Amino acid sequence: MIGLCQKGSCRKLIGHTGKCDPWPTNCWSFLEEKDKKKLSKAGYATPRGGKKGAYQNHVYRNNKVIIPFEKINVIDTSNYEDGYIVRLYPDQAFISSGILSEINLPDGEPLVIGENAFVLYRSHQSFDEFPPLDEWSVRHLEDKNGNIVEKRSSEVLDKGHYILRLPKVGGGKKIIKNEVIEGPPQGIFAPEYANKETNFLSQASLAWQIIHTSSSPYTASQALHLKLILDECSLSDGVHYNYLGMMKGNITTCPLCLKRISYDELHSHINLENEESLLNSGLIVDGTNRSTTVNLFHMIPLEYERLHHNHIYVSWGHATCNTKLGQRRCYSLAEVKEMDIKVAKLIGDSIETFGWISDDDKMIRSPNGAVWIRISEELYIERD
């Protein structure tokens, strides 16, 4: 009889060899290499502009996070099982040149630069206005013997007080100040965090959705181990996926447009010819059109206040739909139907209902798949 080991929290199969493991990635070992790579990438934190913010890039989500000083009052630091460090800009760290601010975290713990915080210099002007204290040093990595090393590991510690990400000033033959990059990346973008358990289950859910794409080269019999793991989360029966629009029947769909996702779209490059609303967008300018047609899709946008990268809300969706949705929640048709707020057109004396609107007035869905998204907020003009 096939089943999970379940010794402790082991998710290997009964009778397995080797050590028990609660996160056995061999449950999707039958996937082609290109699918494994896409799945692995979904488990990475990949912030845009990571270098200038001292963020780590292409590392797993279960890593230390950087908490911006301006967000410390809205973040629950207990969410970050793998640790955190607070980033301050110079004008946040100093009252004036040479005089530090005295700051406590919401729980009363003091903020100590060099221990649970660091200063990020991003301009030559801020460096000149609030220079590092004489006793400070640039952040670096040390092993247990105090030797400076280049690569992170479980036995390596961060030391030092500040990071330099100073851009070049001037251009051509007239360079006024050179670019200065000193200090290693300090952590990942906090909204992208997920602990190891959540990250594994998210990848398992995404693997299941790959298997169920249209024209998938896989069969259900190959995924019995994966199914057993998803059974623990009540996901393999498809009810959850269908409710949120991630699947229709047993076929994976884009949660926004509800069109079936074909297996080839996971690896084909995006084509904007049929996307009239995006032809003049920044997708072409910044090179995002080199993206694959289908990418990681979050039903609830990532934010500092709560962690939303988890197996309940991750799916695959069209890159163009991701762009249209932006930082908005993707409500499914089932969800807005449950809210039971219908929208209608008033044509003369007749009223014609055509869909349901979310209770935050940000999304309308019709029963046939059309979607309307609110793209701006109300303007409230004060009158004399």
UniProtKB/TrEMBL annotation:
<keyword id="KW-0540">Nuclease</keyword>
<keyword id="KW-0255">Endonuclease</keyword>
<dbReference type="GO" id="GO:0004519">
    <property type="term" value="F:endonuclease activity"/>
</dbReference>
<protein>
    <submittedName>
        <fullName>BstXI restriction endonuclease</fullName>
    </submittedName>
</protein>
<keyword id="KW-0378">Hydrolase</keyword>
